[in-house]
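User: Let's play a game. I give you a shape written as tokens, and you guess the letters that built it. Ready? Here's round one.
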């Protein structure tokens, strides 16, 4: 493969040099014919008998006064300009290699046809006046000068035709070879960032987070340029990537995997961007698995964390502390109804584990209903809730858990008919439980499952069934909460329901380990039957981070930004879907979006290998995506909520290029 790439790259360079050399040769040929004193003026035919007239005609020619020779001067000038355009096209192809093939071809054609059109015009005009005589006066002598047959114009026309043919062939061949070569000579800052797709929406103010005076390239050596950003990380002085890989392999559990064949080593982050050890910048489209909500190292969150760390780093809830009490009030104020009591933990798995225990204690029942394709954590208890074999170990897990049909509008058996899926849940309760259940736990958009929204009308029908069976409804908002869906602060609000218990984590702390279970006072009281304690739950530093996140979401209107940026992203991706048959489905809300790739839109056969290839290629081009779904054929686009319109354009352009290369 490397030999093929080098050969293709060498051929591209050779063709570019040949094109430049050919253009220079034609300039020399034109100059030889048209330059004063060359002996073959277009417009003046002479012999030794009219030398004074020749001298006068030469003077005329140089000053651009003589009618016919002036015409020839213009032929010369237009010939030169066409050749220069050809040289520029060749240089662009050689050094930038970023213009689409059609644009480069049009550039070559423009120069060629400009030249050709003038040569034809000059030839026709000269032919019409061929053999006519013109009288000129030199001092006191008047001389008649015959206008000769314009052979030079015909030669110029032939040169133009030759250059046109050669140049267009070179451009087409070069563009064909580019896909093989991938020389990595550096993306030009003027490279199109929108992949040729229309731009038709505007976002709310982007504030400071992507303001700059100059563009920053994706540093991939090819592809679209990253949006401008005013931050350059300090030089990395830590261990090399190779050393980190060696240490990781030697001392970390082998179950801890990394993405990509050539993994990325991240050493710095600011807002929606990440930086590797070389200083290369990437656009983060996955937010640390949907965890960095308001932006990497957001200054407001950093300030709150630093101030609290300097004052008090850790205590527990056996002592009073202002941070945990105030945060509990501020957080529960964001929830509807009687959801007013919080219990803080460290992760989504812990939160869902506790929610199941509370449901069972409150109802006195044991059975829990969940969905196929679900993901609620990887503790032994929550592993039982999993609806994907990829994450399950062959150990006893999740006693009393039942998986209902997944209300997947794209792949589900009932399409987008939510009540039809709810009827399956009714059958499940009758057939697989004693008739009474402890509860139903669900994501409002399945995250690890590939950003799958639940069919319209499903949750109201399912909630009624569960409550009629004596259970409580648990909304897992670990990924969808805090305004990410744009249209609502909590994902469950998009279907008009209010759960009995809400679990949250990930984006709640913008990257700090923090989770919460929020419920009603009646349900919360069941934990008081015994002593319950969490060492790090309510840690003051985590509480300070959580409070700062709430403030930033409100102050920077990030829910509104998710609505606008997410809506624009979905529009652009659906335009992309029209260009690429491999895109089977584009789905989601706000900045929680899924793109599923299939080999055939009718059979919906998962395009697993193709997804892996595009996933790797996007990384090479400066875009870090997430990947998920039962078959691993869905891209998960869940970036920091501060994404801008320019970020969307870059992401779509990268996807467009990566898909085009399949």
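Assistant: Ready! My guess for every position:
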């Amino acid at each position: 493969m490397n030999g093929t790439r080098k050969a293709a790259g060498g051929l591209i360079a050779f063709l570019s040099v040949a094109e430049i050399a050919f253009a220079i040769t034609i300039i020399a040929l034109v100059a030889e014919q048209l330059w004063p004193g060359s002996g073959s003026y277009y417009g003046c035919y002479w012999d030794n008998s009219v030398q004074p007239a020749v001298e006068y005609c030469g003077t005329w020619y140089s000053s651009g006064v003589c009618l016919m020779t002036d015409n020839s001067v213009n032929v010369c000038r237009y010939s030169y300009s066409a050749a220069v355009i050809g040289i520029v096209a060749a240089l662009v192809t050689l050094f930038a290699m970023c213009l689409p093939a059609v644009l480069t071809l049009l550039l070559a054609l423009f120069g060629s046809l400009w030249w050709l059109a003038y040569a034809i015009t000059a030839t026709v005009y000269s032919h019409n006046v061929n053999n006519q005589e013109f009288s000129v006066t030199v001092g006191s002598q008047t001389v008649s000068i015959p206008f000769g047959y314009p052979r030079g114009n015909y030669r110029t026309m032939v040169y133009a035709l030759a250059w046109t043919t050669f140049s267009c062939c070179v451009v087409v061949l070069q563009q064909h070879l580019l896909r093989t070569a991938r020389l990595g000579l550096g993306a030009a800052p003027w490279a199109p960032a929108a992949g040729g797709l229309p731009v038709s929406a505007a976002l709310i103010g982007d504030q400071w987070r992507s303001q700059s005076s100059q563009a920053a390239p994706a540093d991939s050596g090819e592809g679209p340029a990253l949006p401008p950003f005013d931050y350059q990380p300090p030089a990395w002085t830590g261990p090399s990537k190779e050393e980190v890989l060696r240490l990781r392999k030697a001392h970390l559990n082998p179950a801890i995997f990394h993405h990509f064949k050539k993994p990325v080593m991240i050493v710095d982050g600011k807002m929606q961007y990440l930086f590797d050890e070389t200083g290369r910048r990437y656009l983060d489209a996955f937010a640390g698995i949907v965890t960095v909500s308001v932006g990497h190292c957001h200054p407001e969150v950093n300030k709150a964390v630093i101030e609290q760390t300097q004052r008090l780093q850790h205590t527990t809830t056996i002592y009073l502390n202002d941070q945990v009490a105030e945060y509990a009030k501020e957080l529960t104020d964001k929830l509807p109804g009687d959801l007013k009591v919080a219990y803080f933990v460290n992760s989504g798995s812990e939160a869902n584990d506790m929610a199941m225990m509370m449901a069972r204690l409150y109802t006195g029942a044991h059975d829990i209903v969940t969905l196929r394709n679900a993901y609620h954590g990887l503790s032994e208890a929550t592993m039982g809730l999993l609806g994907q074999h990829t994450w399950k170990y062959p150990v006893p897990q999740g006693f009393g858990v039942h998986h209902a049909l997944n209300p997947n509008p794209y792949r589900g058996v009932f399409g987008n008919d939510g009540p039809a899926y709810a009827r399956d849940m009714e059958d499940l309760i009758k057939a697989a439980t004693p008739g009474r259940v402890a509860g139903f736990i669900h994501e409002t958009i399945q995250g690890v499952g590939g950003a799958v929204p639940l069919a319209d009308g499903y949750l109201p029908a399912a909630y009624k069934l569960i409550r009629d069976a004596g259970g409580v409804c648990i909304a897992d908002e670990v990924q969808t909460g805090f305004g990410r869906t744009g249209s609502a602060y909590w994902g469950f609000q998009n279907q008009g329901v209010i759960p009995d218990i809400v679990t949250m984590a990930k984006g709640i702390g913008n990257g700090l380990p923090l989770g919460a279970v929020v419920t009603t006072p009646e349900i919360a009281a069941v934990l008081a039957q015994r002593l319950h304690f969490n060492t790090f739950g309510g840690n003051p530093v985590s509480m300070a981070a959580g409070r700062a996140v709430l403030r930033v979401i409100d102050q920077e209107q990030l829910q509104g930004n998710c609505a606008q940026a997410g809506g624009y992203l979905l529009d652009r991706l659906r335009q992309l879907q029209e260009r690429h048959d491999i895109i089977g489905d584009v789905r989601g809300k706000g900045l929680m979006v899924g793109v599923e790739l299939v080999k055939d839109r009718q059979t919906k056969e998962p395009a697993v290998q193709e997804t892996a290839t595009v996933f790797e290629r996007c990384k090479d081009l400066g875009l870090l995506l997430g990947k998920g779904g039962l078959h691993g054929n869905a891209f998960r686009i869940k970036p920091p909520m501060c994404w801008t319109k320019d970020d969307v354009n870059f992401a779509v352009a990268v996807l467009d290029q990566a898909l085009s290369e399949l």
